Amino acid sequence: MAPQGARPEQYDYSEPPAGGWVLGFTVFAAAMMIITGMFQAFQGLVAIFRGSYYVNTREYLFEFNVTTWGWINLIIGILVFCAGAAVFGGYLWARAVAIGMAALAAVTNFLFMPYYPIWSIVTVACSILAIFALCKYNSGNALRTDKR
Fold first, then answer.
1. Separation between Cα atoms, residue 39 and residue 57, nearest integer Å
2. Which N-terminal residues, if any, form the signal peptide (predicted)?
C-alpha cells in the first residue's frame, strides 16, 4: 500500500521491500564513515606533527614524504567525516558523495599501506563495506509498508 497522499504509480513494487537490515546497514555505513574519517584525520595529524612515528619504506612506487601523506590523510579524513554525517540526512546526493569519498579513502589507504599496513587494510575493508551499504539502499523500497 502506498503512503497516504501518494499515487501508487510512483512506487516500484517489482522488487521486494528493503528490510530493516538495509536501513540499519546504511546507518552503520554512515557511522563507520564518520569514525573512519576521524581516525584518518588523526592519522594525518600524527604524520604531520610526529612523522618519525611511521616507518619509511624503501623502493615504494608511491613514495611521498610522511608529512605530505599526513596532509593527504587529514584532508581526506575531514571529507569522509563530512560525507558520513551528510548520509544521515537521507539525501541521494549525500549517498553519492559518500560513495565517492569512501572510494577515495580506500585508494588513499591502499597507497599508505607500506607506512601502516594493518590500519590501512582495516580502513580499506570498512570503506568497501560502506560502499556496499550505500549502494544497496533504495529509499523507494524502504518506504513501502505492505506485505505480499
1. 22
2. none
* One-letter identity of residue 104: L
Q: Interhelix angle for 66-87 vs 20-49, to 10°?
A: 150
CA dihedral 6, 12, 15, 16 (to 10 degrees): 0
20, 89 in Cβ contact below 8 A? Answer: no
Give the DSSP H/E element, type plus range, for residue 46: helix 20-49
What is the three-class DSSP state of 52? Answer: helix
C-alpha cell at 69: 601523506
pLDDT class of 82 with cuts at 50, 70, 90: very high
Dihedral of CA atoms 70, 56, 123, 62 in degrees, nearest 10, equals: 80
Distance, CA of 47 to CA of 55 (rounded, Å)? 11
The three-state secondary structure class of 109 is helix
Task: Tell me what percent of the chain is helix, strand and coil, each rounded to the nearest 5.
Answer: 70, 0, 30
How confident is the model over 59-81, as pLDDT tens digits? 666 667 778 888 998 999 999 99
